[in-house]
Amino acid sequence: MNNLPFFSGGIRNPRTFVNYMPGVNPSAELSVSGSGGRAQELLIDGASNTNPESGGISFNFPAAEMFSEFKLLTSTFDAEYGRFGGGVEIYVTKSGTNQFRGSAFLNMRRDIWNANSWASNAAGRAKPKDRFNEQGASGGGPVWIPKVYDGRNKTFFFMTYSKDKRPISTTPVLSTVPTAKMKQGDFSELPVSQIIYDPQSTNGAVRTPFLGNIIPKNRFSKILQTLSA
């Protein structure tokens, strides 16, 4: 599975390869062999990994390094499969062996390795910066505790780790706190477009604004009066 096209914009996802399989329609709701959207089953080592609320979906699918085999069944299912409308995705995980083995990887994407798009070239625009790193590792072997337990030929472990690392994209945020007048129910400092309505005046879909955007103090709850004291 290490050579399959798993990249989908972030950490490699083994489910991405389903889109290239015969009989699969990778539309907004993935369909297998003409089935309805979200109708497939996902099995990892024989256990279902399908979100029951959103059929055919796994929101937190394990990393690609975890799997050794993948198979998609599209028709003529055996009796052991059921409760789905179309397609069975079968994944088999890797396992530790009698030897300790591991791997590490770093997948990188950079604008200096990319060609500029035709549209950007035509408009005289430079290539946008592109920075992406997927890094991780895996390892496995026998459970072995010197002079306590020798798990060779019977007990094994295997683990994976993946991380999507890219430059932070900051967004300015404007936060405000209530002024002294606002704490007393006077919101007249707000822009004209921001109107405070009286919730007790609701008539269908219509409410009456408080006069001058000022909430009368007799409408304050005891909790508010204590907090603003």
In terms of per-residue confidence, which ranges show pLDDT below 50 for 5 or more consecutive residues? none
What fold name goes in the CATH topology slot of the largest domain? Ferric Hydroxamate Uptake Protein, Chain A, domain 1
Mean pLDDT: 84
Give the second-level CATH assignment, the architecture of the largest domain.
Answer: Beta Complex
- In which order are the strands of the major sheet placed? 4-3-6-5
The total beta strand count reads: 11
By CATH, the superfamily of the largest domain comes out as TonB-dependent receptor, plug domain
Model description:
The structure is a single chain. With 229 residues, the chain is mainly beta. It has 3 domains: 14-93, Beta Complex (Ferric Hydroxamate Uptake Protein, Chain A, domain 1); 101-165, no CATH class; 180-227, no CATH class. The chain is 7% helix and 26% strand. It is built from 3 helices and 11 strands; from the N terminus they run βββββββαββββαα. It has helices at 118-123, 180-183, 222-227, and strands at residues 24-25, 31-32, 41-44, 47-48, 67-73, 88-93, 101-110, 131-142, 144-145, 149-150, 156-165. Strands 4-3-6-5 form a 4-stranded mixed sheet, with no helix packed on it. Strands 7-8-11 form a 3-stranded antiparallel sheet, with no helix packed on it. Strands 1-2 form a two-stranded antiparallel ribbon. Strand 1 and strand 2 form a beta hairpin. The longest helix is centred in the middle third of the chain and has 6 residues, at 118-123. The chain is elongated. The mean pLDDT is 84.
